[in-house]
Automatic annotation (TrEMBL):
Organism: Paenibacillus provencensis
Record-linked Gene3D superfamilies: N-(1-d-carboxylethyl)-l-norvaline Dehydrogenase, domain 2, NAD(P)-binding Rossmann-like Domain
Protein name: NAD(P)-dependent oxidoreductase
Taxonomy, superkingdom: Bacteria
Domain 6-phosphogluconate dehydrogenase NADP-binding: 10-168
One Pfam match: NAD_binding_11
Broad enzyme group: oxidoreductase
Length: 294
């Protein structure tokens, strides 16, 4: 299959904080975009710009040659793909299925197998970069699945990201995303602690950030989320509730492999405390409040 903006209908399921921007880039490239999301209002702008709205995933699947999903939790992925009214049951042979949700590696393997049995091509392609990366089409995209399928879908990936890597067979993309989330988890504690230390010691955190973000302490989280912490902006680029979900998946996968992850365990426990305080709908940078209350 050769994809082109003139001939390929692309379905996008899940138009939240990141999905809306990702779908928008595909639409702006000239592809006929079909959308479905549980909260119809979230897709309204895309529909106003010409996207075709569907009432069910099954209806969308039947109309598209490529289907991309960006939903919340593994149970959502499983329902959308494997249910009787789901994507696999209602897609024509030859359709490409790309799940960009951060989900379970084991579920990605199951979807790949079920899809292959129906003549469908499945890729797991979780992303990193948050709302900023999605908005600017600079996401890091980690892909698992057949190499030929990855090559075929690369033009679409290039509309959404700049660091696009085929990691291996089905599930490899999700395993790579777990590596990403493990690295972020402990780093977020470090970023929040450092900025809390700066404030508590009487320094100007913004001035401190100028010194440390370009040195050995530099990280994406420090440069992009550090200013939000300092400014008291805790609105979501990536929800606390979704980060907890990701960390739980990583902890479960690590346990299955017999791998110890003390940093991840600590980070997950801190975010669980934030969840209990009612911060599920806030961005991950709200961890700053665990160390200092404005």
């Amino acid at each position: 299959m050769t994809i082109s903006s003139e001939q390929t209908a692309v379905g996008f399921i899940g138009t939240g904080v990141m999905g809306k921007s990702m779908a928008g880039h595909i639409q702006q490239a000239g592809y006929k975009l079909h959308v479905y999301t549980r909260t119809a209002e979230k897709a309204q702008q895309l529909v106003e710009q010409g996207a075709v709205w569907h009432e069910t995933p099954a209806s969308l699947a039947a109309a598209c040659q490529v289907i991309i999903t960006m939903v919340g939790y593994p149970q959502d992925v499983e329902e959308i793909y494997l249910g009787e009214d789901g994507i696999i049951a209602n897609s024509a042979a030859g359709t490409y299925l790309i799940d960009m949700t951060t989900s379970s590696p084991q579920l990605a393997e199951k979807i790949y197998e079920e899809a292959a049995a129906k003549g469908l091509h499945a890729l797991d392609a979780p992303v990193s970069g948050g709302d900023i990366g999605a908005r600017d089409a600079k996401l890091s995209i980690m892909v698992g699945g057949h190499a030929a399928d990855f090559e075929t879908m690369t033009p679409l990936f290039q509309l959404m990201g700049t660091n696009i890597v085929h990691q291996g067979t089905a599930g490899a993309g999700q395993h790579t995303k777990m590596c990403n989330q493990i690295a972020i988890a402990s780093n977020m504690i470090g970023v929040a602690e450092a900025l809390a230390y700066a404030k508590t010691s009487g320094l100007d955190p913004e001035t401190v950030l100028k010194s440390i973000e370009t040195g050995a302490a530099g990280s994406w989280s420090l440069s992009n989320l550090g200013p939000r912490m300092i400014g008291g902006n805790f609105e979501p680029g990536f929800y606390v509730k979704h980060f907890i979900k990701d960390m739980r998946i990583a902890l479960e996968s690590a346990k299955e492999m017999g791998l110890k992850t003390p940093g991840l365990t600590l980070a997950e426990s801190v975010y669980e405390q934030l969840s209990k305080l009612g911060y599920d709908e806030k961005g991950t940078q709200v961890i700053y409040k665990h160390f200092i209350e404005e």
